[in-house]
Write a structure and sequence with these properties.
heterodimer, A: about 675 residues, alpha+beta, FAD/NAD(P)-binding domain, Flavocytochrome C3, Chain A, domain 1, Methane Monooxygenase Hydroxylase, Chain G, domain 1, 3 domains, five-stranded parallel sheet, about 15% strand, B: alpha+beta, Ubiquitin-like (UB roll), Fumarate Reductase Iron-sulfur Protein, Chain B, domain 2, five-stranded mixed sheet, two-stranded antiparallel ribbon, 8 helices, about 35% helix, elongated
């Protein structure tokens, strides 16, 4: 075990980033023209990084598995993006955004990175508006804000329920401008299959053209991994079907450390699983918790009757309902952070209070808001004697204006009208805080290889707050990486073009071809999905919302066994020299089968509960997470081993100079 | 429910395609259309056949990847719905369902139901941006106030997901709705004003180069658009184009 150097600059917290930028090396514009950078992934982080690097003068190649950068899963983010603009005058500041994020992450993130994130958050909004991103506005023409979980100010900028879409299309437009200028060459429908190192430095990648099946070599002076998170290790998640860990894991295999794999965000408000055919889960935006109240029946008999279809939740009397978040957390109520809300739902369902066929659902009820808004509407429209029914009808119209698209989506998927009966929701895997370990410059432990956005581990600690993923992706891509990468590239101005005709590229291509060959020649017993679903069940049952040592140990053994079976018996139809979606899936699942075991090992090693990582052995008498700051205030960064159980642990001690470590309380 | 599927199979861009019939059993109404396709593919794999290839990703109706022509309608029978959000409860036991790729010269077939929509990317690259570099020194966001009605209208145009249903629905395979939605977003915002002339000229020129047809105002694009992008966008683009041509 070694101790990792985060390279956080010295000096007062609020001056670190400015001082760092003032002192790092720069590359002059003429030399930038001779330097090539590969960016893998073209979502918010990769797209914005590629566009900005090209604006600065570097030659950029982008890679994405979709047919267009516009389809990256950043597009599905609904609620919003945080920024410490303090437009609402409610006392927001860089420090408050920094503090909320550190606290929300349960004191497991790096102070200096989080403060930098808060500092550049305002620039992101300025930049996006300048690009023509159509954020929601007030009647006076200025930008509107809303509130999200775990904070007490309104700092979230949004574009209806499609904020991610609008921000991604903004980054895509910046990228398109550079493609048009010839500074970015896009390789769409391509997948990175390996990282190539020469003399210890990242010098390029091996990629597969997903249309023709060709294996290609691409050289560069630096490689940026911005390939998103690994939530699909659970099979069922809110991620896109193609979201995968391959680029990050291939980098890990070549020597980059993988940090905190067990930190996973389980989002509390998703549409519950309806049956075995389910291929993915759909999120209902956290913004709904502004107006919806979460409850289950107070009595077990009522819950049973509801599950059996003998009783309807909507008919249950007020005194027979348990608004458990309001009961347990009076200060934050329904707006507690995601990890807290998810665990509380699981606790009630495990105790037998679940309200759908499977027993894994709780109610999200808008009735009180219908009445509250309806009353205001009636009074402001001169209806002093409006009946309760009239007020509810008026209130429904107000809710429709705020969340109409989400209500429609729910009705379409669940086949129930949420204006008449409460929504049923349950937690689902949504985001992964863990990822490639990076230093303050976003450089991985491989020189010349950088990681940005959800693919790195950097800013969210053990739990991410709502509307912070978009903020981090764009902060990394627009405002951090394009500058910190210059510090590394300043030493590369004399290197010259990177040749792909070297022994290292030969070997990497050979390895890649051998791996594809092996996948194509399995014994042919089971499909790729068969293995992916099995892995997902192990992960959900044993490494999900709550974990214990016995289950984690069992998960490691079961995953190792499943992985061995996969390599022997997987069935990939067709050939490798054409479009072959089963082969694409097989390569991704092969990596998930390694990551899953490391995930369980990481969770087993961390003998504390923090954020999204809840170990049943470490909780307070009333079931809250029990952190251990004396022994576990560090980042776990794992060195690759082909048997993940033997992976080597490296630690980065987290130093808190500016905040006091407290028990996180939302009561 | 039991279904009969008639699906376009084409091994590659140069291969000759044909409709192939597959019986399928055990489908229930809560499944999405693509989950039904997953089951078909799982069956095909287990029978040693090559599964049907189709584009899909988010399965939430927002990424714009999925693109099936279902019984002759882009994204199937339900209004304002992408293929991935269409549920099998919209069909009946015993139904025959035909599934084809988008048909347009500018969207050549890659394999089975997958088509090449890179022509859409090239239209965007021709001018769908504001030429502003990334810097921490752009003006404060609130120094560009915008009327709420204009901002909302620009947002609505910007919600196009680039799936191509408008082209597939159009008898001329025209990309006017797609192109005009982007032109409109910038035409409605002050940020887009400075480059308005070049933008509309370049985007329309690229649209023509890609081989999309002309618009004859049938409005089929708007009817089939899963996001409800309005025909007014086309009128706005025509006005922008005329303005650019006459005033320069």
């Amino acid at each position: 075990m070694s101790v990792l150097d985060s390279k956080v600059p010295k000096g007062p917290l609020a001056e670190k980033w400015v001082n760092h930028k003032n002192h790092i090396n720069l590359v002059n514009p003429v030399n930038k023209r001779n330097i090539d950078v590969i960016v893998v992934g073209t979502g918010l982080a990769g797209g914005s990084a590629a566009a900005t690097l090209a604006e600065l003068g570097y030659n950029v190649k982008t890679f994405c598995y979709n047919d267009s950068p516009r389809r990256a899963h950043s597009i599905a983010a609904q609620g919003g993006i945080n920024a410490a603009k303090n437009y609402q005058g409610d006392g927001d500041s860089n420090y408050r955004l920094f503090y909320d994020t550190i606290k929300g992450g349960d004191y497991r993130s790096r102070e200096a990175n989080v403060h930098r994130l808060a500092e550049v958050s305002s620039n992101i909004i300025d930049q996006c508006v300048a690009q023509g991103v159509p954020f929601a506005r007030e009647y006076g023409g200025l930008l509107d804000n809303r509130s999200f979980g775990g904070v007490l100010v309104s700092r979230t900028f949004y574009a209806a329920g499609q904020t991610g879409q609008q921000l991604l299309l903004g980054a895509y437009s910046a990228l398109n401008r550079q493609i048009n200028r010839g500074k970015v060459t896009p390789f769409n429908r391509h997948e990175m299959l390996d990282l190539v190192k020469v003399d210890g430095k990242a010098r390029g990648i091996i990629a597969r053209n997903l249309v023709t099946g060709e294996i290609e070599r691409h050289g560069a002076h630096a490689v940026v991994i911005a390939s998103g998170g690994y939530g699909n290790v659970f099979f069922l998640s809110t991620n896109a079907m193609g979201s995968n860990v391959m680029a990050a894991w291939r980098t890990h295999r070549r020597g980059a450390y993988f940090a905190n794999p067990c930190y996973t965000q389980i989002h509390p408000t998703c549409i519950p699983v309806s049956g075995e055919h389910q291929s993915k889960l759909t999120l209902m935006s956290e913004s709904l918790r502004n107006d919806g109240r979460i409850w289950v029946p107070k009595n077990l008999e009522d819950a049973k009757a509801i599950r059996e279809g003998k009783l309807k939740g909507v008919n249950l009397k007020e005194e027979d309902r348990d608004y458990y978040l309001e009961r347990r957390y009076p200060a934050f109520g329904n707006l507690v952070p995601r990890d807290v809300a998810s665990r509380a739902a699981k606790e009630r369902c495990d105790a037998g209070y679940g309200v759908n066929k499977t027993g894994n659902a709780v109610y999200l009820d808008f009735e009180a808001s219908f009445l509250r808004y309806g009353k205001i509407e009636a009074l402001t429209h001169g209806q002093k004697d409006a009946s309760k029914e009239e007020m509810i009808a008026l209130g429904k119209k107000v809710i429709e204006k705020k969340y109409g698209n989400l209500f429609d989506m729910y009705r379409n998927i669940a086949d129930e009208n949420p204006y008449e009966v409460p929504m049923k929701i349950f937690p689902a895997v949504h985001y992964t805080m863990g990822g490639l370990w990076v230093d303050y410059n976003l450089q991985t432990s491989i020189p010349g290889c950088f990681a940005a956005g959800e693919a790195n581990f950097s800013d969210h600690g053990a739990n991410r707050l709502g509307a912070s993923a978009l903020m981090q992706g764009l902060a990394d891509g627009y405002f951090v990486l394009p500058y910190t990468i210059g510090d590394y590239l300043a030493d590369e101005i004399g290197t010259g073009a990177i040749s792909t005709e070297t022994a290292e590229f030969d070997q990497a291509e050979k390895d890649t071809r051998a791996r594809i060959e092996k996948l194509m020649n399995g014994a042919g017993t089971h499909s790729v999905d068969y293995y992916h679903k099995k892995l997902g069940l192990i992960m959900w049952n044993k490494c999900g919302m709550s974990r214990n040592a016995t289950d984690l140990q069992a998960a490691m053994d079961e995953i190792a066994e499943l992985r061995a079976d996969f390599w022997k018996n997987v069935k990939v139809p067709g050939t490798a020299d054409t479009k072959n979606q089963e082969l694409e899936k097989a390569g991704r699942v092969a990596d998930f089968l390694e990551l899953g075991e490391l995930f369980a090992k990481d969770a087993l090693e961390r003998n504390e509960s923090c954020g999204g990582h809840f170990r049943e052995e470490y909780q307070t008498a009333d079931g809250e997470a029990l952190r251990d700051d004396v022994n576990y205030a560090y980042v776990s960064a794992w060195e690759y081993n082909e048997n993940p159980r033997d992976a080597k642990l490296h630690k980065e001690e987290l130093v808190f100079e500016n905040v006091e470590l407290k028990t996180r309380s939302y009561k | 429910m039991k279904l009969t599927l008639k699906i376009w199979r084409q091994a590659g861009p140069e291969a000759k395609g044909k409709m192939v019939t597959y019986p399928l059993d055990g489908i229930d109404g809560d499944m999405s259309f693509l989950e039904m396709m997953d089951i078909l593919n799982e069956n095909l794999i287990n029978q040693g056949e090559v599964p049907v290839e189709f584009d899909h990703d988010c399965r939430e109706g927002i990424c714009g990847s999925c693109n099936m022509m279902i019984n002759g309608q882009p994204h199937g029978p339900q209004k304002l719905t992408t293929t991935c959000q269409l549920h099998m409860r919209k069909f009946n036991d015993g139904d025959t369902i035909t599934i084809e790729p988008w048909r347009a010269a500018a969207f050549p077939v890659i394999k089975d139901l997958i088509v090449d929509r890179s022509s859409f990317d090239r239209i965007q690259q021709a001018g769908a941006y504001v030429s502003v570099n990334t810097s921490g020194n752009t003006q404060d966001a609130n120094s560009i106030p915008i009327k709420k009605a204009d901002a909302d209208e620009a947002f609505h145009s910007a919600t196009c997901i680039g799936c191509g249903a408008c082209v597939a629905a159009c008898k001329n395979a025209s990309a006017m709705l797609f192109t005009s939605a982007k032109v409109s977003q910038y035409a409605l915002l002050p940020q887009g004003e400075i480059e308005a002339t070049d933008r509309v000229m370049n985007m329309v020129r690229q649209m023509d180069i890609e081989g999309f047809g002309n618009c004859t105002n049938t409005g089929a694009c708007m009817i089939e658009c899963p996001k409800g992008i309005k025909l007014e966008n086309i009128a706005r683009m025509n006005r922008e184009y005329l303005k650019a041509e006459t005033l320069g």
